[in-house]
């Protein structure tokens, strides 16, 4: 592991996670149906106590978990991360009743969670979402009630999740200030969905809301303040998306080091070619730089630093762009064998593309960084 602020116990834990991912989680991942929620894998993550750590650990520990699992089993990493993303709003903003009902089941892997923010016309511009929460009359001054109508798209774990954190517009024309977060169980009448066949090999789909009923007890946080719930969640998970990317980059680098050291080429080993060795050095340099930025952003989050949005955006941007470069370079240095279906690098090549888009595309991260930088000039 790199020289950073990691304690020996953290370094040992990362090694244990990689071993668990290879020995216990990998075989379950291989048996899972492609593009579907792997419930046996989730249950094993629960038995190992890793899902519970989503709610008891800080951002740095989350990053260490995601990086370590990704180096050995990206499917296990993704299953863990999606549980955290979908259930974190419940953990951070839910009522005692909401938390008591759902978090133990999420932690044991018996309930699947999902984060439902993106829409067909509101991906990167999340504040433009149009899923409507239309108020119903409340005779006698009873609790507030709404009907959700509209569509969500590109929702990980949909349509198989058991609970959804859903962001809907409660005040038309109010932009980010008119969005409310709701906890919506999957069995609510009017909620349907369908899977999407995507390049990234994990469960993802669309959801349709046909006057789905929700009440005040389903609200996460406060009415019209749901965008805060979304951004708080993304500020935590963006550095850990970077950690996922670093784990993939490190796996590609490890494979490339082994391959170039033993591959015969032009009367020697592939590593003896300067063009090859310099490319490998560049891969290692970028991977380490991304890792350090991820750890720094996570530490800033844990310490409550004021510049978390900028650091989170920087970490996700650098790490995901770096992973794309490193995996692509690894494929190039392996040659045609890396393009064969089932090769570890073929899997990584498909897996590495999506993180540059989800939870805020690279272009969005650059916008956040610039906005935060210029805001410091305007501060008194």
UniProtKB/TrEMBL annotation:
| Flavoprotein found in the keyword field | yes
**Gene3D superfamilies registered for this protein in UniProt:** Acyl-CoA dehydrogenase/oxidase, N-terminal domain, Butyryl-CoA Dehydrogenase, subunit A, domain 2, Butyryl-CoA Dehydrogenase, subunit A, domain 3
For whether the record's keyword set contains Flavoprotein, the answer is: yes
Taking every annotated instance into account, which residue ranges of this chain make up the domain Acyl-CoA dehydrogenase/oxidase C-terminal?
A: 224-373
Quote the Pfam families the UniProt record gives: Acyl-CoA_dh_1, Acyl-CoA_dh_M, Acyl-CoA_dh_N
Domain Acyl-CoA oxidase/dehydrogenase middle intervals: 114-210
Stretch forming the signal peptide: none
Q: Which cofactor does it need?
A: FAD
Question: PROSITE patterns annotated for this entry?
Answer: ACYL_COA_DH_1
Tell me which residues make up the Acyl-CoA dehydrogenase/oxidase N-terminal domain: 8-109
Q: Which GO terms describe its molecular function?
A: acyl-CoA dehydrogenase activity; flavin adenine dinucleotide binding
Q: Which UniProt keywords apply?
A: FAD, Flavoprotein, Oxidoreductase
Q: Could you say which protein family the record assigns here?
A: Belongs to the acyl-CoA dehydrogenase family.
Q: Please identify the protein, giving its name as recorded.
A: Acyl-CoA dehydrogenase
The organism named in the record is Streptomyces cyaneogriseus subsp. noncyanogenus
Lineage at the top is: Bacteria, Bacillati, Actinomycetota, Actinomycetes, Kitasatosporales
């Amino acid at each position: 592991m790199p020289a950073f602020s990691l304690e020996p116990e953290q370094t040992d834990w990362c090694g244990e996670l990689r071993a668990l991912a290879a020995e216990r989680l990998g075989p379950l991942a291989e048996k899972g149906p492609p593009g579907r929620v792997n419930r046996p894998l989730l249950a094993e993550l629960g038995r190992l106590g890793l899902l519970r750590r989503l709610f008891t650990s800080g951002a740095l520990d989350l990053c260490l978990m995601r990086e370590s699992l990704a180096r050995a089993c990206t499917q296990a990493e993704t299953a863990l991360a999606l549980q955290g993303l979908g259930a974190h709003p419940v953990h951070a903003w839910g009522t005692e009743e909401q938390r008591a009902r759902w978090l133990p089941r999420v932690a044991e892997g018996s309930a699947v969670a999902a984060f439902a923010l993106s829409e067909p016309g509101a991906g990167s511009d999340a504040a433009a979402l149009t899923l409507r929460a239309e108020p119903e009359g409340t005779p006698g001054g009873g609790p507030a009630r709404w009907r959700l109508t509209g569509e969500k798209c590109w929702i990980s774990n949909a349509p198989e999740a058991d609970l959804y954190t859903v962001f809907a517009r409660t005040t038309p024309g109010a932009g980010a200030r008119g969005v409310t977060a709701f906890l919506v169980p999957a069995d609510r009448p009017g909620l349907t969905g369908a899977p999407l066949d995507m390049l990234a090999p994990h469960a993802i789909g669309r959801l349709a809301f046909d006057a789905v009923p929700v009440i005040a007890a389903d609200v996460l946080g406060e009415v019209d303040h749901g965008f805060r719930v979304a951004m708080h969640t993304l500020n935590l998970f963006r550095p850990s998306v970077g950690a996922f990317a670093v784990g993939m980059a490190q796996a590609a680098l490890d494979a490339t080091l082994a391959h170039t050291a033993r591959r015969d080429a032009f009367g020697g080993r592939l590593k003896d070619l300067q063009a090859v060795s310099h490319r490998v050095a560049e891969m290692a340099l970028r991977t380490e730089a991304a890792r350090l930025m991820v750890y720094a952003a996570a530490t800033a989050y844990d310490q409550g630093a004021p510049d978390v949005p900028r650091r989170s955006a920087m970490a996700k941007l650098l790490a995901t762009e770096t992973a794309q470069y490193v995996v692509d370079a690894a494929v190039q240095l392996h040659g045609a064998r890396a393009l064969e279906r089932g090769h570890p690098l073929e899997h990584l090549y498909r897996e590495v593309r999506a993180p540059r888009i989800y939870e805020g595309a690279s272009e969005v991260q650059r916008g956040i960084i610039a906005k935060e930088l210029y805001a410091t000039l305007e501060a008194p």
